[in-house]
């Protein structure tokens, strides 16, 4: 259970980091530092990672809740 809580914390930290990264690449795209196709690829990759992390976090939190109830 302790490991799962640590993993949830790490996932939350990574989700925050992904938000900052996404903002940065958006700004880079707007300013012309990266082209539209590169922005689309990077943003799709980051969005996929965010979705996977969110799903894992929900599963881990359900497992933690279940273990606490037992």
Description:
The two termini are 12 Å apart. Helix 1 packs antiparallel against helix 2 (36-69). The protein has 70 residues and is mainly α. The protein contains two helices and no strands. The protein is elongated, with a radius of gyration of 16 Å.
Key traits:
70 residues, single chain, 2 helices, mainly alpha
Topology:
Elements: H1 2-31, H2 36-69
List the quaternary state of the chains. single chain
Helical stretch count?
2
SSE series: HH
Helix content: over 70%
Largest sheet: none
Question: Low-confidence spans: pLDDT under 50, at least 5 residues?
Answer: none
Structural class: mainly alpha
Query: How large is the radius of gyration?
Result: 16 Å
Distance between the termini: 12 Å
Averaged pLDDT, please?
A: 94
How many strand units? 0
Specify the overall morphology: elongated
Strand content: under 5%
TL;DR?
This protein has helices spanning 2-31, 36-69.
């Amino acid at each position: 259970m302790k490991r799962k809580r640590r993993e949830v914390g790490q996932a939350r930290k990574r989700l925050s980091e992904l938000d900052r990264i996404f903002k940065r690449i958006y700004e880079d795209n707007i300013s012309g530092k990266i082209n539209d196709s590169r922005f689309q690829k990077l943003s799709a990759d980051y969005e996929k990672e965010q979705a996977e992390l969110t799903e894992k976090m929900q599963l881990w939190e359900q497992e933690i809740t279940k273990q606490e109830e037992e």
